[in-house]
Amino acid sequence: MEITEKMVEGVRVAYMDCRGSYDRIPRYIAEVAEWVMGNGLQMTGRVYGTYYNSPEDVSEEDLVYEIGVSIAGEAEPSEKIKIKDLPAHRVLATLHEGPYTEVGPAIHALIDHATENGYEIAGPITEVYLNSPLEVDESELLTEVQLPVRRPD
């Protein structure tokens, strides 16, 4: 598995805070996308999930995550959908090909690489979805897994 260090550009996103089963993620992505289009905003290509805890550590109903899309334009946030600017930041990244349910080893590889190489972990795991299960077979799904880090001194 290839792991690279890179800078992620800052981006404006529309997102929603989520709790519970990951099975709801496709519905949440659709909800955010519908809100974006309904408010005259343009989606600029990045569909992501940021995961604040893990199904290895908490029960399914206690999973906490954020689902969002990068946008261009201005709109008033709603009760459920919010807007924020994500700053540029450094990540360790790897590409996972295959079902979303099998991304765990990629996450562990990033954390192990960071720890073994003296990086400080600077935030939660983010998965950037490069294609969609509506477009390709599950075995062809591409997910860039990112771990925000600070370089070792």
- What name does the CATH topology carry? Multidrug-efflux Transporter 1 Regulator Bmrr, Chain A
Helix and strand sequence: EEHEEEEHEEE
Q: Give the DSSP E fraction (strand runs of 2 or more residues).
A: 35-45%
**C-alpha Rg, in Å?**
16 Å
Low-confidence stretches: none
Q: Which range best describes the helical content: under 10%, 10-25%, 25-40%, 40-55%, 55-70% or over 70%? A: 10-25%
Class derived from helix and strand content: alpha+beta
Tally of individual domains:
1
Mean pLDDT: 96
- The shape, in one word, is globular
Short structural summary:
The protein has 153 residues and is of the alpha+beta class. Helices cover 18% and strands 41% of the residues. Strands 1, 2, 3, 4, 5, 6, 7, 8 and 9 form a 9-stranded antiparallel beta sheet that branches.
